[in-house]
Amino acid sequence: MARRISVFDTTLRDGEQAPGNAMNPEQKLDMALRIEALGVDAVEAGFPASSPSDFEATRLISKALTKARFATFSRTVRRDVEIAVEAGGTVNHEVQMVATGSDLHLQYKRGITRKQAVDEVVDTVGFARSLGVEHISVGIEDASRSDDELMRAITESAVEAGATCIILADTSGCTTPDQYGDIIAKVRSWAPRPIKVSTHCHDDFGLSLANALAGLQAGADEVQATLGGIGERAGNTPLEELAGLLAYKEDHLGLYTDIDIAKMHEAYTALREVIRLEEPRNKAIFGTYAFGTAAGIHQQGILNNPATYEYVEPARFGRKRSLLIARHSGRAVLRHLLEQIGVEVDDERLAELYRVHIAERAGGDCEDLEIVKERLARELDARVPVLAGR
Fold it and tell me: Which SUPFAM superfamilies does the UniProt record give (predicted)?
């Protein structure tokens, strides 16, 4: 039986803290509702102690969500937790606090000892409990450069103090799937269920999805992800890739989420508009040409049977296939267009049309099939079928 994976969306916190991604409280509220509608389990509203804007966003989001938990980010500081609770109360509120998890960070960022780091966790978790918070997550920052002794001390102390979830952050994106899987497996052994173990991976080497998957296979219960993979530096685990992968590979992996993958592109489009993010050309799932091709051999296969080159189906993600005419296109797609406008030509005329409309195009020039079809129809004085919706 497949195991259900919890999805914790951090678009509005880790995603927003990247340069250029700032949103005002009303924009964050709108995005929180869109993200909740996807079927995520938790929406991280922000870091209330960091600014009045995040405080207000948390206040708004805490009142608006009806299905997902809302979460907040805090340091292992009582006042941070207190402000988070002031902003959103304790009902349906997951208070997430970050523990210093490596000697590198202890020495150069915090200037404290290992014991002090553990004591901070115990004190802050206990304080959150005293305020009535039921969902308490402790994120071990820089876990990928920690060691067993420190990670175990933080994990076991946090759980004993009342934490309900341990998050393993590959903060600098430096780990590999085998390494990250080992970390998750160890922490899973120190924090048996019902304590939740969560992944938090960054994409500095393009491995955030692979690392998150390795973590799930090693026993993690939850993935932290963002729409489009936005986030600090190179970004975070992309929600659409994680949800899409598990939707396609549920039988193979024995894992699934409740994410409605058909709604994700609409939410991502809204996010791009808010943060003024250009659409990438070839990003998995969300790229302009993620479901497009201009290559002749591929086009011939797709025209005969889309499954030849489309394992990932665009319609499942609310997208459409796009076949484009470029200098790499072949005669098959040209014949296809001529058939659509009801024109038959001999081989000599086909070769001439191929030269004019395909072979002599400038290097990067490409056009949608419909545009080329209309041009051919005008040139050949044929009627173009009117498509529904045009």
Answer: Aldolase
